[in-house]
Amino acid sequence: MATRPSSSSNECVGSAYPFRHSPSAHQRPLKVVPPAHLSKIKFSVGSLFIKSIHLKGIRAHQDSTVNFDDGINLIVGPNGAGKTNILEAVHLLCLSKSFLTSNDRYVLRRGEPFYEVEGHFESDIRGSVTVRAAFVPGEGKKIFVGGAVLERMVDLVGRFPIVVFSPGDQRLTAEGPEFRRRFLDNIVSQSSSLYLDHLLRYKKVLKQRNELLLSARKRRQVPDAVLLDSWTQELVLHGAAIIADRIRFTEKYAGHLERAFEQISSVAERPTIVYTPFADHLATPENASDLYQAELERRRQSELDRGVTLVGPHRDDLEMYLDEMPVRRFASQGQHRTFGMALKLAQYDYLKERSAERPILLLDDIFDNLDPARIGAFLDILDSDVIGQSITTAARKEIVYNHLGSHPCRTTFVETGGLVLEKEPTDVLIGTRDSASSD
Amino acid sequence: MQFSSESVEALVDQFARLPGIGRKTARRLAAFILKLPKAEVAQMADALIAVKEKVISCTTCFNVTDHDPCPICASERRDHETVCVVEEPGDVMAIERTQGYSGIYHVLGGAISPLDGIGPEDLRIKELIARAANPAESDPIIGEVILAVNPSVEGDTTAYYISQLLAPFEVKVTRLARGIPIGSDLEFTDEATLTRALLARVSM
Question: Which one of A188, A208, A228 would you mutate to disrupt binding with B, by most B Cβ within 10 Å of its Cβ?
């Protein structure tokens, strides 16, 4: 079977929406058809899913096991029962930390001496893989892949691509640039371990260089010129590599974002993202190093005055626009929500293309604030072969069941205290579900 | 958990100070010492005291030694025109084990790290430049300085700093190559190492 290059499928999408940028095509029907360009590349994408997970000493869960299907999975339960903790544990096995906190002490259940999570992954490409993470306060965390301990946590990143939708995504478009940088770093790190390596080294150099600048300022001195220059060299080495990768990424990702936006928005607006390192619109991967060096040179005096590094990837922003409108300042609540979802859906699409596997998709309580039409549109995407495995938490199962109708979907019930059940605890509500569908 | 003897507890405390030793291992070591004959423990204690009493640092290369100059600096069979710069005495031992280097050494005593309060003045960098710039009359002129510092951001920065200071002198400055560890498979080499190895490829 020949693999269709994705560029040709891009063209076919463009032609399907010829009036995308025209104001006259303002309203589009909300009904979502699984996008043709994505189902076409289906056969070249492998599937990846987590079959089961065992949680011990994770927040609400003293000892729980949850089984999953390779499709839509629903976790239902009252607030605070521990639904999100299951998603956190899946995330922990894929990226070595929870998506809510990087401090393992907060992941550990109160009063427990340690936590342990074990997950069984199934992959077309790699077969069955067991990942286990264990954390003991004071002794640290260890992660085992197929029984072998990982020397560095970062070696896990990228092996099991994963995307999370959570209520916190609002901050991506509405709040400060640090949320957008983190988003950017998450995607690029999952698709390039070299990027992650540069990022970690950059952060270290940045701390060292800041300390050099700050301690000199405290002593009312200027740091040794050759010494400062040496740290600047190291900063530019890793910083320019990060900037170059971010520029390349933004160019590729733009197309994914446009397509994702089309899928979930009823309005024909065009989303754009602009990455301008040190506010220089002429930056390219090739000249990033020279521009960065020159910019540091230009700002040297202010850096000395303030005792801190003022230019670099740690200061950059990823600006977002709808048509010509800056999203952060002018978008409505609805536009923020749509843009945020499109960003994540595009992340999914991008990672899928890069890793040739469908990432695992986690959806943490995102349906509660959405109108039924948007929920429907979103569930249609989950149900199509665009998405592989998805795990959704919701306070009530009806939100999902009503839309999927007779379609089966594996449901796990979490009761207060982290009790995990495969069947609904009380039969009172069973009538809301199409009884023919249960088997 | 507590030992019923204060002396044992004190020994555990001392062992726990060693790098890489946690309290659990420290207790195991203390229990081992308890079982040893007294003579053997005395031997061990003597060895500990001896390193502090006898070991000095070589005034030329700053490696640890019992005699100044150290056997490497004093050896006539070694190539005194080539100096290998390392962070710690342990690195000298690592390179000596290769038996593939016949030059002499210079031990910096660490790497530049503002966060740990280590600046160039806290390392033996001045002494290295002096060795390269104005060698004593009896010494041969240094032709090559090999920077064998760790591939960390601190090591990289230290190497760059030294190379800048050596630039005015007629001395060749080189760095250890980075690449794929011997005995490992290309397939299982991480992307970062592989990319660096590609960038630093050599012609055949």
Answer: A208
Whether A31 shows a pLDDT value over 60: the answer reads no
pLDDT band (50, 70, 90) for residue B138 = low
Only one residue has tokens 């002499």, namely B104
Write down the pLDDT at residue A397: 86
Which of A193, A194, A201 has its CB closest to that of B153?
A201
Please answer yes or no on whether A230 and B113 come within 8 Å at the CB atom. no
Kindly give, in sequence order, each residue whose CB lies less than 8 Å from that of residue B197, ignoring residues fewer than 6 positions away: B178, B179, B180, B189
Please compute the mean of the pLDDT values over residues B167-196 and round it to a whole number.
Answer: 85
User: What's the whole-number average pLDDT of chain B?
Assistant: 91
Closest CA to A249 of A310, A326, A194: A194
Q: Given an 8 Å threshold on Cβ–Cβ distance, is B192 in contact with A233?
A: no
B154 vs A208: CB contact, 8 Å cut-off? yes
Nearest CA in chain B to A238: B153
Residue A208 to residue B165, Cβ atoms within 8 A: no
User: Where does chain B show beta strands of DSSP type E?
Assistant: 56-57, 64-65, 79-86, 103-107, 144-147, 172-175
- Domain with A210, as residue range(s), is 169-356
The shortest CB-CB distance from B115 to any of A208, A227, A234 is to A208
- Strand B79-86 and strand B144-147: the pairing is parallel
A170 pLDDT exceeds 90?
no
Q: Of the candidates A356, A390, A425, which is a domain's last residue?
A: A356
Residue pair A80/A417 in contact (Cβ under 8 Å)? The answer is: no
Query: What is the CATH code for B72-203?
Result: 3.40.1360.10
At the topology level, CATH places domain B6-54 in Helicase, Ruva Protein; domain 3 (1.10.8)
Q: What is the pLDDT of residues A126-141, one digit of tens each?
A: 889 999 999 998 888 9
CB pairs under 8 A between A and B: 55
**Judgement on whether residues A187 and A289 belong to the same structural domain of the protein:** yes
Q: Is residue A134 located within the same domain as residue A187? A: no
Nearest Cα residue in chain B from A156: B190
Q: How far apart are CA B167 and CA B149, in angstroms?
A: 18
Q: What is the pLDDT of residue A439?
A: 37
d(CA A159, CA B5): 51
